[in-house]
Specification:
two-stranded antiparallel sheet; Arc Repressor Mutant, subunit A; single chain; Four Helix Bundle (Hemerythrin (Met), subunit A); mainly alpha
């Protein structure tokens, strides 16, 4: 039923295969999973790995361990949270795919921010922009400040799902951002270009111009993809 996986494999590999079997109907809603010992044998991994996988599925609302009875598939388990394999996300091609997804979301977020941003929201965006410049002047990579800047724009839309989605994506992109930021710090022209791109986004939001904000965010993230490629991550 299951494919054997190396003992070193992460528990999310087991969780993913279990999810696939649940989706196929092998384990129906309300049905019981095989015992921990049986799963460990079928997957060829330790019982600790199985426990971690079950814990992941429990946290995602897919299964429910019942003391003394076993682990059961929940009725709402068919509603899946978004999951991305961290090892796969670190691959060069996946980084660019995630960046393309981020571009689509952030371009629309910038457009919405231009339409709906309050004075308080704009102030937070401008403060976040200034924090990037300060970090760079102090010789830091500015990654945390960069992430905070884009989140401030997402928050300014008034739509909480923009912020939630970007928060989810950024965790897979921060490593790449760190590499490019360090590369940019060594090249004054690149560093200035990034600052200018950010400033254009803010100016468009400040002017209440959704089309300009969308275009500025797209340009910034297209250039970010190019910079990733320049340092070998694309």
């Amino acid at each position: 039923m299951f494919e054997k996986i190396p003992a070193r494999a992460l528990s999310d590999t087991v969780a993913q295969q279990l999810l696939e079997q649940i989706d196929k109907g092998t384990f129906a809603s309300g049905g019981k999973l095989p015992t921990e010992a049986m799963l460990a044998q079928q997957f060829g991994v330790s019982r600790t790995v199985i426990r971690e996988a079950i814990s992941r599925l429990k946290n995602e609302g897919v299964v429910e361990p019942r003391q003394g009875s076993g682990v059961f598939v929940l009725a709402q388990g068919s509603v899946r949270p978004l999951r991305i394999d961290s090892a796969e996300a670190a691959e060069a091609g996946s980084v660019l795919h995630l960046l393309a997804l981020r571009r689509a979301i952030e371009a629309e977020a910038a457009s919405e921010a231009a339409l709906r941003c309050t004075r308080a929201g704009l102030k937070k965006i401008e403060t976040a922009l200034a924090a990037i410049d300060k970090a760079v002047r102090q010789g830091r990579d500015g990654v945390a400040e960069d992430v905070a800047f884009h989140r401030a724009i997402a928050a300014a839309t008034g739509n909480p799902y923009f912020l939630k989605t970007l928060t989810f994506l950024h965790q897979y992109l921060e490593a790449g951002m760190t590499v490019t930021r360090r590369h940019e710090a060594q090249h004054e022209e690149l560093s200035r270009q990034v600052c200018d791109e950010h400033a254009v986004i803010v100016a468009a939001i400040r002017a209440g111009d959704p089309m300009a904000a969308r275009n500025a965010a797209c340009t910034h993230l297209y250039n970010a993809a190019r910079r990733l490629a320049d340092v070998g991550l694309g």
